[in-house]
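Can't attach files on this board, so I'm pasting raw text. These are the components:
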Amino acid sequence: MNDTLKAAKLDFALIKPYMKNICFTMVIPVVFAAINRSLMTGVSFAMCFIAMTTGYTFSVSEKSGMDRLYGILPISKKHLVFGRYLYTCLMGFLAFLFSMITHPLVLRVLGETIHPVDICFAIVLGILMFTLYTVFQLPGYYKLGAINGRIFMYIPVAGFLAILLLASKLNLTNNPIFSALTGNPMISIIAVLLVCIIAYLLSIIMSIKIVQRKEM
Amino acid sequence: MDNFLEVSNLSKSFSGFWLQNISFSLPKGYIMGLIGPNGSGKTTTIKLILNMLKRDNGEVKVVGFDNITDEKAAKANVGAVFDTNYFCDEWTVTQVEAAVSVFYKNWDKNKFSELLKRFHIAPTKKVKELSKGMQMKLMIACAFSYDAKLLILDEPTSGLDPVSRDELLKILSEYIEDGEHSVLFSTHITGDLERTADYITYINYGKLFFSGSKDEFTDMFRIVKGGRNELTFNLSEKLIGVRNFSTGFEALIRADDLKQFSHLDVEPATIDDIVVFTNQEGEHYE
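---
Top answer:
Structure tokens for the assembled complex are below.
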């Protein structure tokens, strides 16, 4: 097994005892989607909530003094970082997949019509939001640790509120950028994916630098 | 390869502490005790060997591999046990195996379950439910399951009851029996070393005081006892740390210096005596 996969597997093992809580957290956005009758709101909440659990791996390992385990395992620090990013992205992907299946279903049951553009915009917004939250959270946790860096847990909440505020101020229906995005869904998805890849690359480089400088 | 651990001129400075030019080697098939008072640099040395701290200078070879350039190969041959458990508290013993075994190509599942049986560790128990002694044995079981050639233990017996300590020392003695494994064992409970160690490395205030065979170490010194009037200037100059009583004194002296003072009561020095008295002298000079 590749070292990155081994490290990601170790991270999944870390959060295994908390899996029930995380799954329960994923149910709440379904309720939000139902109340607001909006796919976008539900998916945004789901990505916000799952990003808030990014620190679990850091806090569990910090609580159990697992730095020493990481120190003796035959794996480089770089691969430990890659593994954590892979784990984070997989968690985000699973949450996203769950939301994209359950939320439209619930909305359909409630009699709402889901247009392809709604789905497309939910995909773009969901991926973008999750990326923006986690690319700042992960280096933050690496730098300060889970306890001192607990403020990073609230980045998704702050980000979510900021996006809501921005959306209300910008009057999106008459916004040319918004219109261009909704008019070219494929281009929007590709552009967002590119932004996400670049953001993750920069974030990974930053995290590796932090970890390599750190002494256990 | 004769040595499973080779440390040369290892140095590391922190604010207020400097580990200076530590050199020692541990031959294959032996147990070495790493001793010294609290804060002397034992844990720092171990962390430097495991590349958990960045060294300022020096070289470390673990089972023939450089601990930085060949870090992965070096660590695949090392098992480490610390004074406290390093697994996730919420994991069961089975989950510990699932999480750790993927990192070692030669992990032996059968050996692990045999060791669990031998150590009376229930696979369904959570790590946090195990006693300190059991947690220690779990860390050892993991190290043995991938046949770690070198086992490094950092103060493993501190906080263990006498029965668990005895069991641990037996396990270590059995581990090196085949001549293919070695143990580096840091402790300040020197009684454990009297029983198990073949070699001693003594670090005091960040400096290497001695590294060599245990017998050589204890043969280097003697305890001398005498009345107050026997504590002459000539004698005082040769003594390494003195304990004064109302009736007389007790002190450590180098065996070579003893010939001139044959009239005094002489006893063999234990490792504990040597550490305590040399530390008194160290404090005096600090």
